[in-house]
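Consider this one:
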Amino acid sequence: MQFSKSRNISRWIIIFASFLIISLILWNTYTFFQIFKQEERLKMNLWANAQKTLINAGENTDLELPLQIFSNNTSIPIMLTENDSIINSINIDETIVKDKQKSIRFLAGLKNENEPIEIEYVPGKFQYLYYGDSELLKKLKYYPIALLLIIVLFAALVYNFYKSTKMATQNKLWAGMAKETAHQIGTPLTSLVGWVEILKSENVDESTTNEIEKDIERLQTITDRFSKIGSEPKLENKDIIEETQKSYDYLQSRFSKQIEFTFTGPEAPVIVLFNPTLHSWTIENLVKNAIDAMKGRGKLALEVLHEGGFVRINISDTGSGIPKNQFKSVFEPGFTTKKRGWGLGLSLTKRIVEEYHKGTIKVLHSEIGKGTTMQVSFKVTELI
């Protein structure tokens, strides 16, 4: 507890320090921008004074300093106007200068960037100097935005890495717990097999021992499922109709007679590359979800369709239905409408279908108060 608290405090200190550093960088950038902007304003004031000196120059006027000021400006765009007409342009593209409409638009842009400098070269006569920001100043202006974008991207990468690492750790933990559960169940299962053999030797009714054997076989299947979590399952080319029928028949025999079960499918085998144990888990999860949606009473239909290169398994119920805006979210971990349960059934089913078997699963159709049809699709194996 103390370690966890210290770790949280450390995280908040790091976050606060990061924000403080970012704020200082942005503040310094803004300060530099303002300093450079003031310096460019001073340069333009000198340029305006040089222009005034040049206009009023006599024969004996020393023009060396004004001309040097003019030549030193190689980066700041300038437009000089008099009586609302552009009389001179400096550091502006020739295509703009030669086009009157473009020049007017460019001048409007300069007016928005900086306040003009008024040049009264003789009493009552004025010229106005309009100027824009230099390329360096523009780059400095957009630097904080670029910096923020980089910081946001970096933060997103760190968060994604942290989340992925956390999920990977959790997955390893759950996989380890599942394997340990499978291992623990294995011991009493072995004993149960032995007890069944004793019951047989005692001439107990054969139908009773057969049903017990079916349940033991089911427990062995469940143990096998848990042992496969976290490892790559072995896929086999088998008849998916037969395997689906097996799972369906077992579930039908174990649920209430108030559920009306129907199964339809092709008579000919349909070969698919899949893991029988995990596939039975898929069918079981979908059938149990359908029965839960009907609250233990209604019609449940499982239909297998062979369409071209695909086999589609539709499981339909007459339950409460799913709102259209939840068609995708029902497969998210933790999503559940039940008072009990962790909302892992459909999430696990989706992983089995899509990650292990490269198939697809979706809500094919649903209507509130009338029922839902879930569809699982697999690619059929082309046997040579």
